[in-house]
Design goal:
The protein has about 150 residues and is mainly β. The protein is about 10% helix and about 40% strand. This is Transthyretin-like family protein.
């Protein structure tokens, strides 16, 4: 009997952990007093350098706006946990004559914006952010990784 209860508990735990979870984020990026257009925005499963963790990508509009949403449906069972992170690749305030690559930084999304289901029920509005500011842990990248999914 204990074996059956343990087996049932493990089965329920596996079902709960394998639930489809989703995230939805929007915001506006500026470079000085104008919209930061053509900024690449990645929504990552967690904050890693692995391109397989890119759930979705978008490019900002000419006014700097973006809206990005994704879920963990279709990911391998060992990659369904979401610790959502936004990563931005931009050239704000960069001299085009000096090819240094892209400025890159990441922001974690609060966990309470993760919802169960394929479509997010809440949207995290990160507001407006001026990319002239040098972000903590900002790095450089020569290229922008493409999603592997």
């Amino acid at each position: 009997m204990k074996f059956l209860v343990s087996l049932l508990a493990l089965g329920l735990l596996a079902i709960v952990q394998a639930q489809i979870k989703s995230i939805d984020v929007k915001g506006t990026l500026a470079c000085g007093n104008k919209g930061a257009d053509n900024v690449r925005v990645h929504l990552l499963r967690n904050n890693t350098e692995d391109a397989a963790d890119i759930l979705e990508q978008r490019t900002t509009t000419t006014s700097g706006m973006f809206h990005i949403e994704a879920n963990n449906d279709g990911l391998p069972a060992n990659k369904t946990e979401l610790i959502p992170t936004l990563r931005f690749y931009h050239n704000c305030d960069e001299d085009p004559k000096k090819a240094k690559g892209f400025r890159v930084f990441s922001l974690n999304i609060p966990a309470n914006y993760i919802t169960i289901g394929r479509k997010a029920r809440k949207t995290y509005d990160m507001g407006a952010l001026n990319l002239q500011m040098i972000m903590p842990n900002e790095k450089r990248a020569k290229t922008i990784p493409e999603p592997k999914n």
